[in-house]
Model the fold of this input.
Amino acid sequence: GKKVLIVYAHQEPKSFNGSLLKIAVEELTKQGCSVTVSDLYAMQFEPRATRNDIVGHLHNSEAFNYGVETWEAYKRGGLSKDLVEEQKKVQEADLLIFQFPLFWFSMPAILKGWMDRVLVQGFAYDLSKAYDGGLLQDKLSLFSFTTGGSQEMYSNEGICGDMHYVLWPMQHGIMHFCGVKVLEPHICYAPENVSEEKRKEMLTAWTQRLKTLWKEEPIDCSPEWYFK
Done:
């Protein structure tokens, strides 16, 4: 069976994001997948990138450089326990699903902190090994999130502009940079502002998509896909 890591960033299990998480865990488990969930709020995951992420001596104690220090610490096995645990989950996963509400055109701080701290140089990328050459090439990723605004608002004509502009830093700047292949995002637009019936339709659509997820082809991770 395939291994799936769901990195989940919502404070309330009874939320719409919580329902999407529950469906993903149930449906993928039913398919015989091994599903692991990193529930960041429940874990009280530390989003700040600090020198606490390095165990033992610093490479340069005179001037702290987080990128250099975590790279050196990774090479010698000196990263903090929580980072090692998350990296192990990533390493074992065939698919990474990120489930969250869109905050300010981006992911919540706790999830961005996960990206900042877990995807360190040496583990996820190297300066000579990025994008198609990134170190996590054997993996798929999928961003599943909810918005406050309607789909019309996230269009070329809408007040928020095309959703592809929002996806670019997350899908291209993080996942593709690390070599991870990217599936089409799953976006539930404004679940708080629609009818109960519409919300049920959204949940059903997610269930249906998950049934054939492994047959999907990744998107063409190029500027053309985002800005054509």
